[in-house]
Design goal:
Layout (H helix, E strand, L loop, with lengths): L3 E4 L18 E5 L5 E3 L3 E8 L7 E8 L12 E6 L9 E4 L10 E11 L6 E9 L7 E2 L4 E4 L3 E8 L7 E9 L11 E6 L5 E7 L10 E11 L6 E9 L7 E5 L2 E2 L4 E7 L7 E8 L13 E5 L5 E6 L11 E8 L8 E8 L7 E5 L6 E4 L3 E8 L7 E9 L11 E6 L10 E4 L10 E11 L6 E9 L9 E6 L4 E4 L5 E2 L2 E2 L5 E7 L6 E2 L4 E4 L6 E12 L6 E11 L2 E10 L12 E10 L5 E7 L6 E2 L3 E4 L4 E2 L4 E4 L5
Parallel strand pairs: 1-45, 3-9, 11-17, 19-25, 27-33, 34-42
Antiparallel strand pairs: 2-4, 4-7, 5-6, 5-8, 8-9, 10-12, 12-15, 13-14, 13-16, 16-17, 18-20, 20-23, 21-22, 21-24, 24-25, 26-28, 28-31, 29-30, 29-32, 32-33, 35-40, 36-37, 38-41, 39-40, 41-42, 43-44, 44-48, 44-49, 45-47, 46-49
Length: 639
C-alpha cells in the first residue's frame, strides 16, 4: 500500500543579500521550467553555471527515490562536465514509468556534487514530482460568469488531475430566466486529450433594447466516455441588462493638501449608450482658495460603469483644521441626478489634526442596519506627547434603538499616529420600514498638542426591511460531509427569515451530489472530493409580495480531514537584532485528524530542501492531535 503523504507549505525565511554576478555558482534546471511531470513522460534537465568558468566543472549526479521506487523511473547516475567557457552540460533525460496504479503523487530527488573545478557551492539538490495519471479525475467548474448582454466569453471545465486516456465531453446550454432570444445556444462535442486538465468553450449573449432584470442560463458539461469520478458539471451564466437607466454613486477619500482629491463615479449597472457626467466642486469648510472649483465633464462609455475625477487642492502654508468641500454630479443619463459627495482635505502645516476615519475612508459612511462601522482614531502626524480623546455617539434621526451608543476615553501614546484598536459600533436590525437615519460620532480632544479640539464623523443607517439573502460560504470535511441552513443568516422585515414566509428557488450544480431541502438545509455528501466549488445561487421571494426577492451565491469548500499548522521560532544567536551566522529558525508542526476515520502512516512530502525530522506517525484517531513528531531546524544565510 502506498503511503499517505501530507503536503505542507513551509514558510522559509531567507536573508536579503546581493549575488556576485561573476561568482561561479552551479545549479540544476528543468528544460520545461517545471519540476513536475506526468508519469510516463521524461524529465529533461541540465547542470548549469550562472557565469562561465575558466576551467571545466565536473559534477556527479545521482537520483534518490524518496517515495518512488525503480518502477516509477529509471535510476540516474552520471558524471557530467560543463566545459570551460560554457554555461551548461547540455540536456540530460530521466524516463518515468506509466504504471497503471492509482496512487498519490510521488517524488524523487537529484543530488549533484562538484568533484572537480572551482565553484562557490559544491552540492545542489533538486526535488521532482511525478504526477499520477491513473485516478479517475473529478470534474470541476470553479467560475461563474456575469456578462453584459451582447458580449461573450468562455465556459471553463477543469479536471482535478491528469488522466492516462482521452475524456469525451458534450457541452449543452439550457434556459434559466434567459431564453434563446438572449444567447446563442451551445451544443458541442469535445475531447480532453490524455494528460490535459482543462477545457474552454466559447459562448455569446445577444443584445436587445428591452429594460429587464438580469437573466441566467447554464452550460452543462457531460462526460460521454472516459473514466471520471463524476459525470457532469454546470457553469452558470448571468446576463447583465444594459437597457435600464442606471443610478450613480460617488465616493471620495481623504487627501493631503497639495495633492489631488479623487472622486470615484460608479453606475449601478452598465447602459447601452454613453453617459455624460459633469462634476462641480463647491465650497464647504474648505474655501475656493483650497481647491480648484472648475467643473469637469467625463463620459462613461456604453457598457462600462466607472470613471473618476481629479480635483487639485492647494498647499497653502496655513496651519488650519481638516476641511471639506462638496462635489456634485449631474447627468441626464442617470435616474438620480444630482448626486453629491464630500471631499476631505488634510492640513500639512503646523500642528497635526485629529481625525476619526472609517476604514473605507468615506466621511459620510452608509451602513446597512444589522451591520456595523469600524472607525480609526488617528492624527495626521505623530507628536511627542500623549493625545487623550473622549469619544461619544450623538443621536440624530437615529437613536439608541438603532445603534449601540459608544462612550470611551482613548489615549494615543507619544510617537504613535493612531489608537492601537479600532472603534466598532454595531447597528441594530429592526422590524420597521423607514428611511435613511443618521447619527454622529463625536470626538473631544482633552489633552495633546493638536490643532483641532474636536471632530465629528456623520454616519448614515440604511434600512433593511425587505427580504435580504446573504452570501453563504459552506465548509465541509472530506469523508465526513456537512449540513447547514442557507437561510439562517437571511432576514425579512428586519427579523430572521421564516421559511414559511418565502419561496426558495435554487440554481445549483446538481452533478456534485449537493442537495437542498424545502426548508433550505444544504447537505454536502461525504463523497464529494476536496476542492472549492462555486455552487451557484438561490433566490428567496416573499410569499405575500412575490416581487420582493433577493438572490445570493453559495460557495462550498471541501477540506482535508488532516489539519496542519506550524509555529516558527527565531533564535538570534548573538542578540544583535540582525540575521547572522549561528541564528536558528525552528519549525514545530501540529497535525490534527478532523475526520471520522483514523489516518495512518502519516509523513511529510517535503517540497523544499530543508531537514524535517521525525515521523512517520503510525496513526491519528479522529479528533487526535500530534504536535511533537515533526520538527525542523534551519539556519538563515548571513547577509
Amino acid at each position: 500500500m502506498k503511503k499517505n503523504y501530507l503536503k505542507l507549505l513551509l514558510l522559509l525565511l531567507f536573508a536579503l543579500g546581493s549575488r556576485n554576478a561573476s561568482a561561479q555558482i552551479f545549479y540544476l534546471s528543468s528544460a520545461s521550467g517545471s519540476y513536475s511531470l506526468i508519469e510516463g513522460d521524461s524529465y529533461v534537465f541540465s547542470a548549469n553555471l550562472y557565469s562561465v568558468s575558466a576551467t571545466p566543472v565536473v559534477i556527479d549526479i545521482v537520483s534518490v527515490y524518496n517515495e518512488t521506487n525503480s518502477a516509477d523511473f529509471a535510476p540516474f547516475a552520471a558524471t557530467v562536465t560543463i566545459p570551460a567557457g560554457q554555461l551548461s552540460t547540455g540536456l540530460l533525460t530521466i524516463v518515468t514509468g506509466d504504471d497503471g496504479d492509482i496512487e498519490q503523487n510521488e517524488s524523487f530527488s537529484l543530488n549533484a556534487t562538484v568533484t572537480s573545478g572551482s565553484t562557490q557551492n559544491n552540492e545542489v539538490s533538486q526535488y521532482v514530482t511525478i504526477i499520477d495519471n491513473d485516478a479517475p479525475p473529478t470534474l470541476h467548474q470553479y467560475l461563474s460568469a456575469n456578462l453584459i448582454e451582447g458580449t461573450g466569453s468562455s465556459a471553463y471545465l477543469n479536471l482535478s488531475n491528469p488522466f492516462h486516456s482521452d475524456i469525451a465531453v458534450t457541452v449543452n446550454s439550457a434556459d434559466g430566466t434567459a431564453t434563446l432570444a438572449d444567447y446563442t445556444p451551445v451544443n458541442w462535442n469535445y475531447i480532453i486529450p490524455a494528460g490535459q486538465t482543462s477545457l474552454a468553450v466559447p459562448y455569446m449573449t445577444t443584445i436587445d433594447n428591452t429594460p429587464e432584470s438580469d437573466e441566467t442560463f447554464t452550460i452543462t458539461f457531460t462526460v460521454t466516455s472516459g473514466n471520471t469520478a463524476n459525470n457532469s458539471a454546470v457553469y452558470p451564466v448571468t446576463i447583465i441588462d444594459d437597457d435600464t437607466v442606471p443610478s450613480l454613486s460617488l465616493a471620495s477619500y481623504q487627501t493631503t493638501e497639495g495633492y489631488d482629491a479623487t472622486v470615484y463615479a460608479n453606475l449601478s449597472n452598465p447602459f447601452n449608450s454613453p453617459i455624460t457626467i459633469t462634476l462641480t466642486p463647491s465650497a464647504g469648510t474648505a474655501g475656493t482658495g483650497d481647491f480648484t472649483a472648475t467643473p469637469q465633464t467625463k463620459v462613461i462609455p456604453a457598457g462600462q460603469t466607472y470613471t473618476s475625477f481629479s480635483i487639485d487642492t492647494t498647499d497653502d502654508g496655513i496651519d488650519e483644521p481638516v476641511e471639506q468641500f462638496t462635489a456634485t454630479a449631474v447627468s441626464a443619463g442617470i435616474s438620480n441626478s444630482p448626486v453629491t459627495t464630500n471631499c476631505t482635505i488634510i492640513d500639512n502645516d503646523g500642528l497635526p489634526d485629529f481625525v476619526l476615519d472609517a476604514y473605507s475612508g468615506n466621511k459620510q459612511e452608509m451602513i446597512i442596519e444589522g451591520g456595523g462601522i469600524h472607525i480609526m482614531a488617528a492624527m495626521t502626524a505623530p507628536i511627542a506627547t500623549p493625545v487623550v480623546v473622549n469619544i461619544t455617539t450623538v443621536p440624530g434621526t437615529a437613536t439608541a434603538a438603532d445603534y449601540a451608543p459608544y462612550t470611551a476615553t482613548l489615549t494615543i501614546p507619544p510617537g504613535q499616529q493612531s489608537f492601537s484598536e479600532d472603534i466598532y459600533i454595531p447597528m441594530f436590525l429592526d422590524t420597521l420600514e423607514e428611511g435613511l437615519e443618521n447619527f454622529t460620532v463625536h470626538a473631544e480632544i482633552t489633552s495633546g498638542n493638536v490643532y483641532n479640539t474636536s471632530f465629528d464623523l456623520p454616519v448614515t443607517i440604511i434600512d433593511d426591511y425587505n427580504v435580504n439573502a446573504h452570501n453563504d460560504d459552506v465548509y465541509s470535511i472530506a469523508n465526513v460531509g456537512n449540513t447547514v441552513s442557507l437561510l439562517a443568516n437571511d432576514t425579512l422585515h428586519g427579523l430572521p427569515l421564516n421559511v414559511a414566509d418565502v419561496t426558495l428557488t435554487t440554481s445549483f450544480d446538481s452533478s456534485l451530489g449537493i442537495t437542498v431541502d424545502a426548508n433550505g438545509f444544504l447537505t454536502v455528501p461525504s463523497t464529494l472530493a476536496m476542492g472549492y466549488y462555486q455552487l451557484g445561487s438561490y433566490t428567496v421571494c416573499e410569499n405575500a409580495n412575490p416581487a420582493n426577492c433577493s438572490t445570493t451565491s453559495v460557495n462550498v469548500q471541501v477540506i482535508s480531514p488532516m489539519g496542519s499548522t506550524y509555529t516558527v521560532t527565531y533564535s538570534d544567536y548573538n542578540g544583535d537584532g540582525f540575521t547572522s551566522v549561528g541564528d536558528l529558525i525552528s519549525y514545530a508542526f501540529t497535525l490534527t485528524n478532523n475526520g471520522n476515520l483514523p489516518i495512518t502512516n502519516i509523513d511529510i512530502q517535503n517540497s523544499f530542501q530543508i531537514n524535517i525530522e521525525g515521523g512517520p506517525i503510525a496513526s491519528l484517531a479522529p479528533g487526535e492531535t500530534d504536535s511533537t513528531t515533526f520538527l525542523c531546524n534551519t539556519y538563515p544565510h548571513a547577509r
